[in-house]
Amino acid sequence: xxxxxxxxxxxxxxxxxxxxxxxxxxxxxxxxxxxxxxxxxxxxxxxxxxxxxxxxxxxxxxxxxxxxxxxxxxxxxxxxxxxxxxxxxxxxxxxxxxx
Length: 99
Prior knowledge:
The chain has three helices and five strands; from the N terminus they run E-H-H-E-E-E-H-E. By secondary structure, the chain is an alpha+beta fold. The chain has one domain. The strands form two sheets. A three-stranded antiparallel beta sheet has the order 2-3-4, covered by helices on one side. Strand 3 (53-56) and strand 4 form a beta hairpin. The radius of gyration is 12 Å and the shape is globular. The mean pLDDT is 89.
């Protein structure tokens, strides 16, 4: 299922640094109906690799790579740097979304 996800100023204000289920991106995904998103970085564990991914509470083995702008945002947010609201699109498994 393809989702258009808007990370809002409210998500940023409520988000918690270095909390995979409570970061602004996870909060925005939850608002879109995604159940239990956990957002984590270092997908490839290669120096300079800024890819981040999301896994889902009912399907932790099904990892979805997030768009590059999500990694840039999440890295900055976790470091306490200023970030701005943004929008991205992602394809998630149907099983990850509440119906």
